[in-house]
Design a protein that fits this description.
Helices cover 60% and strands 8% of the residues. The protein is an alpha+beta fold. It folds into two domains: 11-95, no CATH class; 103-182, no CATH class. The chain has a four-stranded mixed beta sheet. Strand 1 and strand 2 (46-48) form a beta hairpin. The relative contact order is 0.06.
């Protein structure tokens, strides 16, 4: 009795591309703490190579919330699409429910793109968010009942505010130095030649 081979459908064929098979082989030899790999196909579907299954954007959001390390790669080109997927999650969160950013805040962020201070602003935001996360963690250690009467709460908030002010002052100093350098080079270029 002969068995006829089953024809594979497109959905079954996508995950078994040669590039992905190579990566899965490499991942199997990697340590348990390695970065999880997700493939994005042209049909906009996401394939989790760790679980060998298709996942949704909501699943990726759950991985972010669980602080799991992952990378999203284009299935054909291998291009890193992680930032694009994270921005897509932020966009969905901002449009569904209560947004975190006001229209003014978004406009200000957009204005920094292409500006000489773009890198500094990104660094400032990242440090400020990390400071806020650290503060949140310390506050979570205290009971809610003790927060209002606990002098540690005042110290935490004071420390956070002081750290934020220091970062802002550093940013202002760097902006001032860059402005001086820019004005100096502009002045030298505009000075009359003898």
């Amino acid at each position: 009795m002969s068995v006829t081979p089953r024809k594979s459908t497109r959905k079954e064929a996508e995950p078994s591309t040669s590039a992905e098979s190579t990566e899965q082989g490499a991942q199997s030899g990697a340590s348990a703490g390695s970065v999880r790999s997700i493939k994005k196909y042209p049909n906009r579907r996401l394939y989790d190579t760790q679980t060998s299954s298709y996942i949704t954007l909501a699943d990726v959001k759950d991985m972010v919330l669980a602080c799991q390390q992952f990378v999203v790669l284009d299935a054909k080109s291998g291009e890193d699409l992680t930032r694009s997927i994270l921005l897509q999650i932020i966009l969905e969160e901002e449009t569904a429910g209560v947004p975190m950013f006001s229209t003014q805040a978004l406009a200000q962020i957009i204005r920094f793109y292409g500006h000489t201070m773009q890198g500094l602003m990104g660094n400032y935001l990242e440090q400020n968010i990390q400071s806020f996360i650290d503060l949140q963690g310390r506050l979570a250690e205290n009971s809610v009942a003790n927060l209002q009467q606990n002098p540690l709460m005042q110290n935490f908030m004071g420390g956070y505010i002081e750290q934020t002010q220091q970062m802002f002052a550093q940013m202002q100093q760097q902006m001032s130095k860059q402005a001086e350098t820019l004005m100096g080079s502009l002045g030298a270029g505009l000075a009359p030649k003898k």
